[in-house]
User: Which sequence fits this backbone?
């Protein structure tokens, strides 16, 4: 019997998972928050927009056999809602979360718990590559520094001294090198999103440029976390996600 899977998406892994499940004959629907105007669409069905909190998501789980939270590691509210709705409805659920990054030799990283702490860590006069996403820019508006703000879409606010670069990754290493050099960047601020080795972190290491890395928010207690698309596919096809 085909299983109906709801994937909470917005990441490359969610897209890959939807393609893999659709190819296996699984009825898969991906849910997108609707933040970007021209999202890369996954295979299978797509629904867009918030559910309306835990109640709305719980109602949407009525005809769902398995819920997969494949949202970005910083989409903490959605993950909390997934935990609440899955517990309420008894829907089996699992979180697909790529591992975070680990510093290697030559990296000059400072880990901070929040965007606000990242903003407070920036030295006056710095030239910052701010790569924390459109929604995170507000935390930096009062910082006395120059910013190259890179985002997929225009942020609502920008620091007073800033240049906006609209671009969607992944970015090639040689482009990141050119970006850091061309703008004389002295510090990179990023979220610990994890995933394939990030070119900006490598380019920063090569130049001995410090990186302020915002730690991921904690996951709800007792969550079933899986690190790879392969593992989730194995568990959903043909059977086997444990009850959350
Ligand atoms: P969030 O703060 O955790 O969620 C805020 C609200 O947005 C949720 O309560 C929910 O509204 C809605 N929402 C979030 N993800 C959704 C989804 N996949 N489908 C339907 N509704 C969703 O999330 P966020 O940080 O704003 O991220 C929004 C989306 O962008 C996520 O899907 C995430 O995967 C993606 N994304 C986020 C980041 C990041 O750095 N935060 C980076 C890349 C991609 P209701 O309560 O009304 O259901």
Assistant:
């Amino acid at each position: 019997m085909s299983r109906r899977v709801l994937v909470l998406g917005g990441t490359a892994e969610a897209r890959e998972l939807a393609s893999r499940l659709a190819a296996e004959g699984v009825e898969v629907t991906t849910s997108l928050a609707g933040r970007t105007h021209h999202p890369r669409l996954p295979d299978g069905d797509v629904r867009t927009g918030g559910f309306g909190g835990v109640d709305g998501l719980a109602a949407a789980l009525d005809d769902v056999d398995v819920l997969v939270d494949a949202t970005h590691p910083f989409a903490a509210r959605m993950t909390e809602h997934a935990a609440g709705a899955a517990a309420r409805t008894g829907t089996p659920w699992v979180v697909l979360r790529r591992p975070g990054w680990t510093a290697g030799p030559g990296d000059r990283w400072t880990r901070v718990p929040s965007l606000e702490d990242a903003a407070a860590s920036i030295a006056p006069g710095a030239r910052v590559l701010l790569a924390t996403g459109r929604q995170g820019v507000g935390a930096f508006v009062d910082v006395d520094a120059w910013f190259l703000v890179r985002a997929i879409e225009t942020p609502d606010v920008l620091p007073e001294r800033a240049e906006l670069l609209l671009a969607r990754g992944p970015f090639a290493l040689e482009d990141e090198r050119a970006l850091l050099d061309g703008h004389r960047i002295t510090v990179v601020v990023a979220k610990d999103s994890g995933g394939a080795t990030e070119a900006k972190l490598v380019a920063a290491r090569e130049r001995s440029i410090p990186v302020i890395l915002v730690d991921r928010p904690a996951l709800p207690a007792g969550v079933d976390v899986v690190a790879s698309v392969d593992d989730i596919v194995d568990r959903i096809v043909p059977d086997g996600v444990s009850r959350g």
Remarks:
- The longest strand covers residues 27-32.
- The helical segments are 12-23, 53-60, 76-89, 115-120, 173-182, 199-207, 229-236.
- The longest helix spans residues 76-89.
